[in-house]
Amino acid sequence: MSQCEDAFGTYEKCDFAEGMELEKKEQKKAPKGAAPSHLPLSPERAIALLYVLLAVAFVFFMALTIVNLQRVSAVWEELKRARMHTESSHTTAWYNLSEVQHSLGQQLSGDLQVIQGQLLRVSREVENVWRNLTQCRAECGEELSDRLRVLAAEKPWLEVVLRQLTEVEQEQSRALALLNASLEETRGLSARFEALRLRAGCPTGWQEFATSCYFFSTDAKPWLTARNYCTNHKAHLVIIDNEEENGFLARHITDNQVFWLGLSDTESEGNWQWVDRRSRSFLSWNNGEPNDAGHDGEDCAIIYSNGRWNDIGCSSNEAWICEQTF
Ligand code: BGC
Ligand code: CA
Fold first, then answer.
1. Which of 39, 63, 195, 202 is the residue whose CA sits 20 to 30 A from 82?
2. CATH code, domain carrying 250
């Protein structure tokens, strides 16, 4: 225990005496000539030091407070801004929500109105149909019975018409049978006529070949006159169907003789047609013919003694051959 602890109220002196004592001890330990490690701290200096420390602490505290205040104010500002932003977001969201609500409400009410209108229309139509049906039940019944009465009145007359129709039908069948019989008779007659004609042969001056009679003219006329001549004699200007017929004709033609054929292209140049307007595959044009030579062209055909054909002007006067088919 230290001596200083016994004496009440002398702590400071004791401490100070102890300090002095310690200082002396340290001076003895230190080598000679070395400076003392620090100056002795007087009470005034200590108090001053304390004040200084207090001032520094105060300044430090104030600085800290200011800094913290600034921070707090910055945070406060931030919070204010955040709050304002949140408020504005809330306002916008609320506005949008109310807009959506409003438009939805409008749309829904519009749709509802449309549906309501349609329902009204449908119910009116149903009402109309029902009214018509009710009305018709009475009127239609009357109309139907009227029609039935008319039909019943017309029945006898209809029966008469039906009977007449049956009679007409029977008459028609009888007429058809008669017609068939007549046709058969005609066929028989024409067969008999054909047999007689065959027995009689071709008219005088006409040559027979296969199933035709041929007339070789001695006169010379333009093609049209020759064609009319044949027509007037129940014949036509000769039509050559095949090589055999062509050969038969050629054999009846002497050298330097030519005869009109029933062949021309007067209707359409180059489109050669027989007088019956039916086409045939057999042709016997001379080499280089038909050539439509000359100023006026050549539209009617002739046959030479060698059986070859040529086209010449139709107005030329030539002999001709008529053909009469059995
Ligand atoms: C020609 C024929 C023509 C005839 C007229 C002959 O010399 O070869 O094509 O039709 O003359 O006369
Ligand atoms: Ca010619």
1. 63
2. 3.10.100.10
